[in-house]
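To illustrate this point, we now present one chain and its tokenised fold:
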Amino acid sequence: MSAGVFDTRSNELGEGPLWHPRLEQLFWFDILGKRLFTKPGETRQEWLFDRYVSAAGWVDDHVLLMASETDLFCFDITTGAQDHLVPLDAENAATRSNDGRADPHGGFWIGTMGKQAEPEAGAIYRYYRGELRRLYDRITIPNAICFAPGGAHAYFTDTAERIVWRQVLDGQGWPVGTPEIYLDHRETGRNPDGAVVDRDGRFVCAEWGSWRVAVYDPSGRFLEEIPLPVEQVSCPAFGGGRLHITTAREGFSADQRAAHPQAGMTFVTDTDLVGQDEARVIL
């Protein structure tokens, strides 16, 4: 499989791709650019915010639940209206939101991190029916938040630790017991970033700095790779029978940007993998 360009707009830090299953269109973020993008058909649209935004879940045909550096809020894509829900590390100016995803129980998981990736400055939270609860702390770069079919397990990583964890969930989607190691990349040096799980439980993970998305079976065995023409691959999302992939050019010098003009663009590829529909957030 080879990936082609889905959208040519270059992101400093492309992240959080979300395929809205009812609108049948992709939304994604440039975190450092403080922007939300979408591309219904050949139409391109974007919104600029006054703070970092990074991840979203869908609420209905008009409203996204979005994570920013200071809060979770509802965003109306038809009017641009914002409705604050709960603070998210609002008292800490040194942190921002990062990776996040809705879970099959109607909750929304979101990670925070230091704006300069300060060690252990972040955490992972879950919003569920009006409550925001901290699940894990002392996280440096939270990523790979995704869920097994049926919602029996969650996955997450601290990219700085190069370990992906698998966590048992109860009937309401809350963690039970301690997480177990699912993937350990400390020896390979690969950096797990954003991830998603397909309908058969295969873990599909962007590996930052590795020019690829990697596919693993439910036991953690490597199955295949999807090569990308850019180095900093950040997050995949299934939608419309294809796999969409965000990338970044964060930290690139002028020479690197000139040598890799597609860095930061959003890519798409055909695949035999079948994705799960993204879950709806229940407010």
